[in-house]
């Protein structure tokens, strides 16, 4: 029997009470009417509670219902994989047969590489019936490999948000571990900004949409997860983009829950240009560490520069040390912007985004804003048609 929405269910019970009272008005003593109403109301509330519990449990197991991939397509992948089931902390994920992944990725050919990363390269995988997915082949030593693999499964099997990557399944092969994600046609933000196209596909408005989507994902991790989750490895290569340049944050291998004693492995993360100074100094990792990393991404979107660039054969300069001292100069600011988007935005919006970036990368964590505040500041800059609030 189909489930009835809770408000509709309550309405039907109230209607039933009304009819009952009217029908028995001449046969029931007035004293009995109130108990009937109270009992019926209590029953309606209980049914609503049961319904909401069912709905919550149903939603908690929808982590495999991927954005952009139809359920029928998912079932094809699962049935083709001869899958076994592995239980994460709160969910079921299919084990996908290695031979299927190998065939779908053309034996993990270089031609199928979507992005090269320290934590693990991403490969485009083409399954039957035109289904595509991303396969992450984890790098590193066996212990690091296993820890990050289990961490991603534990977290992504229970997190469901439009701006967090969805996990289709996983695979073991000898000592190598594989994670299978939903397909992201436009690869990583790092490749879009610093690859061959040099950001040419990213207009000012698209860049601001990417910033807002990324902020939404982080705000969800910090404000709506219990306990809050610190990503700990956020960088432009962790920001995946679908065909419409919608963001999905990935790379949760080093993520930790607030209050956890676990420490991320900086040498293995490959995110040194995005790492907050307090973590480099004393290993302190908080939500404000993610805010700092977001600020670096915002600077990349504005300037089109890499987080760390060589200034001499043996010298490097971070985008933070290069940009921040100049960002407060309103006249100089337009000249610092990526040429692809130069003069493509209102100066007041450019100044506002620059000010947000400066706040996010403050050396002292206490001076950095919360991701919720960052999100509320950025949304008015994005056009309505791209999910923001701004209109001409």
Any chance you could write out the topology, listing elements then pairs?
Elements (H helix, E strand, L loop, with lengths): L5 H18 L6 H31 L10 H10 L4 E4 L2 E4 L3 H7 L8 E3 L4 E7 L5 E7 L3 H15 L10 E7 L2 E7 L6 H6 L9 H20 L5 E2 L8 E3 L5 E3 L6 E2 L8 H4 L7 H6 L4 H17 L4 E5 L2 E4 H9 L5 H4 L10 H14 L10 H8 L14
Antiparallel strand pairs: 1-2, 3-4, 4-5, 5-7, 6-7, 8-11, 9-10, 12-13
Helix pairs in contact: 1-2, 7-10, 7-14, 10-13
CATH topology of the largest domain: Transferase(Phosphotransferase), domain 1
Beta-strand content bin: 5-15%
Judged by helices, strands and strand pairing, the structural class is alpha+beta
Shape: globular
Under CATH, the homologous superfamily of the largest domain reads: Transferase(Phosphotransferase) domain 1
Q: Strands of the largest sheet, in order across it?
A: 3-4-5-7-6
**Radius of gyration over C-alpha positions, nearest whole angstrom:** 25 Å
Q: Please, how many domains?
A: 3
């Amino acid at each position: 029997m189909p489930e009835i929405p809770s408000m509709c269910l309550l309405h039907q019970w109230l209607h039933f009470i009304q009819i009952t009272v009217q029908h028995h008005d001449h046969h029931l003593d007035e004293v009995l009417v109130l108990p009937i109403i109270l009992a019926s109301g209590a029953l309606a509330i209980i049914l609503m509670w049961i319904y909401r519990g069912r709905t919550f449990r149903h939603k908690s197991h929808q982590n495999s219902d991927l954005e952009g991939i139809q359920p029928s397509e998912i079932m094809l992948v699962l049935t083709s994989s001869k899958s076994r089931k592995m239980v994460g902390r709160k969910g079921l994920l299919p084990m996908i047969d290695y031979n299927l992944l190998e065939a779908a990725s053309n034996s993990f050919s270089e031609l199928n590489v979507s992005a090269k990363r320290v934590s693990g390269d991403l490969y485009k995988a083409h399954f039957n019936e035109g289904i595509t997915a991303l396969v992450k082949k984890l790098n590193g030593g066996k212990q690091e490999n296993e820890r990050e693999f289990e961490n991603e499964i534990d977290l992504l099997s229970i997190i469901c948000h439009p701006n967090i990557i969805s996990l289709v399944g996983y695979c073991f092969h000898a000592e190598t571990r594989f994670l299978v994600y939903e397909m992201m046609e436009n690869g990583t933000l790092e490749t879009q900004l610093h690859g061959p196209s040099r950001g040419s596909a990213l207009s000012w408005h698209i860049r601001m949409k990417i910033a807002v989507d990324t902020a939404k994902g982080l705000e969800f991790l910090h404000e709506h997860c219990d306990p809050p989750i610190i990503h700990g490895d956020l960088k432009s290569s962790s920001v995946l983009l679908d065909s419409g340049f919608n963001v999905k944050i990935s790379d949760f291998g080093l993520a930790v829950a607030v209050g956890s004693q676990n420490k991320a492995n900086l040498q293995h993360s490959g995110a040194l240009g995005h790492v907050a100074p307090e973590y480099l100094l004393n290993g302190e990792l908080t939500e404000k560490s993610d805010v700092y990393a977001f600020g670096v991404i915002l600077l990349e979107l504005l300037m089109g520069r890499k987080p760390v660039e060589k200034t001499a054969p043996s010298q490097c300069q971070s985008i933070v040390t290069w940009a921040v001292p100049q960002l407060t100069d309103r006249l100089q600011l337009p000249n610092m912007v990526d040429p692809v988007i130069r003069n493509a935005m209102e100066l007041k919006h450019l100044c506002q985004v620059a000010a947000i970036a400066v706040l996010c990368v403050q050396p002292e964590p206490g001076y950095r804003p919360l991701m919720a505040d960052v999100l509320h500041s950025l949304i008015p800059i994005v056009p309505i048609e791209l999910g923001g609030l701004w209109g001409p």
